[in-house]
Amino acid sequence: RPFYVEPRNIVDEDTQERVSAEASVMNSRMQYYSRLTGSSDRLLIPPDHVIPAPEEIYVYSPLGMAFKIHGNADGSGQNPSIITIFAIWNTMMGTSILSIPWGIKQAGFTFGVIIVILMGILTLYCCLRVLKSRAAIPFIDTSSWEFPDVCKYYFGSFGQWSSLVFSMVSLVGAMIVYWVLMSNFLFNTGKFIYNYVHHVNVTDTDVGTNGTDRVICPFPNTEHPANHSADLYMTYGNNTEDVFDQWWHKTKTVPLYLIILLLPLLNFKSASFFARFTFLGTVSVAYLIILVTLKAARLGFHLEFHWFHSTDFFVPEFRSLFPQLTGVLTLAFFIHNCVITLLKNNKNQENNVRDLSVAYLLVGLTYLYVGILIFAVFPSPPLSKDCIEPNFLDNFPSSDILVFIARGCLLFQLSTVYPLLGYLVRVQLMGQIFGKPYPSVFHVMTLNLIIVGAGVLMARFYPNIGSIIRYSGATCGLAYVFVFPSVIHMISLHRSGQLRWPSVVFHSFLIVLGIANLIGQFLM
Q: The Amino acid transporter transmembrane domain covers which part of the protein (predicted)?
């Protein structure tokens, strides 16, 4: 949901407050009015001049991007379709793109590609149901509503609180994934810099290919362990390197070092400073696409089709582990909590369905491009396709300069988006419980310590981003993607006397799919 960042205490060279005292009072009055009455009551809706300026309104996706909303004072959109489509693509593209090759490997190459296409169509349909949910409510002006307001209208306080809970699952899950990834990227970046400065000739202990474009298999011939505690590089006999490896460990020390950097940033009252760096998300995704293309050109394709039986180097085309991919894709295609806001600012509202469909098509093509290429070029033989990691960058050594650049860009991007997600968690949770986003330093610090502690524990004991993404995606997707849109649509049809049994069967089937998707994550 969009939220207003009051321009106070902004980290910048110019410490002058950017709003007058009168504007600040008007903002407080607007928030006060919003708590006096339900959003369906138009009597106490604040006037246009009280509404924050468009440059102070942002929308955040669970896994990555912050998008600045542009609109007129009367609420009408002014973005052309191409900008709207790019905004949706930019918002939906998150860190889950790193796990798509692993998910395709878990499902099997052929089955994985089919699942990506089907999940894209399925989540698009549910997203369209979310988009049209406001129009089905009669006799009430819903132009300012978001999907949680629709849930509250149909389900009362249960809808309001359940939407908050599932929103917290997606946001906190994203922050945990970010902490694991930042620990990974910081470790490999520091290792590269140390080896370069000290002229260390790295000898990998991992099984891998030879040549300049080396690909490694960190855990050959074993089940993927929950704890990546094994160092990628261990050299005994050099005391300096032994000390460095002891203090620069991927799971034991580096996740703790991030606390020094990120915990203070979570306590900022304003998130405007970090929102200025959100363009780096587009740059990072573009660079990943270029990196994958270069690797494909250099490594070539390595494919064999074995439909139901695995071999030493290839996995079957259809595998029973496919729910792991559906869980990842539920979050990869997740934009349902902010799609109304993004399309509300579309200049031509009649094109909303088309623009959303085109955006989903581009997102799906991006996932397929990265997933198919990484799977296809993974060198089998000598390595098994089962070696593809939940973060496909882990299949390249720290000494790879192109991958080093990718890790550095992603590390900086995630370190700026992480405080934004923390701010959104605080605004939603504290605002719902205490009525204000910053009740006290104690409350905020306690919340931040819980979030950071969860990230540190997962980075220490279970740094598998694929599993974290699929669990959080299947959980929040159960409500936002499958259950709420389907139930609300059937209720609206029933109230208008248009509900028919084919619609009941189809939307009930969607709900069953969402439940099965969640249950499947715990059985794999």
A: 84-194, 241-518
Determine the pLDDT at residue 105. 94
Torsion of CA 415, 420, 422, 428, to 10 degrees: -170
Write down the pLDDT at residue 271: 66
State the pLDDT at residue 245. Answer: 82
pLDDT tens for each residue of 389-438: 999 999 998 888 999 999 998 898 888 888 888 888 888 888 778 878 78
What are the residue ranges in the chain where pLDDT is below 70? 1-77, 202-206, 220-241, 271-272, 274-278
Rounded (10°) angle between helices 109-131 and 100-107: 120
User: Nearest CA to 35 among 437, 438, 432?
Assistant: 432
Angle at which helix 109-131 crosses helix 352-377, to 10 degrees, equals 160
Predicted local confidence at residue 509, as pLDDT: 96
**pTM (2 decimals)?**
0.79
What span, in angstroms and rounded, lies between the C-alpha atoms of 315 and 107?
A: 9
Picking from 368, 427, 395, the residue whose alpha carbon sits closest to that of residue 299 is 395
DSSP assignment of 442-508 equals HHHHHHHHHHHHHHHHHHHH---HHHHHHHHHHHHHIIIIIIHHHHHHHHHHHHTT---HHHHHHHH
Pair type for strands 57-60 and 3-4? antiparallel
Is residue 333 within 8 Å of residue 119, measured between CB atoms? yes
Question: SS3 helix, strand, coil % of the chain, rounded to 5?
Answer: 65, 5, 35
The SS3 call for residue 58 is: strand
Integer Cα distance of 278 and 413 in angstroms: 7
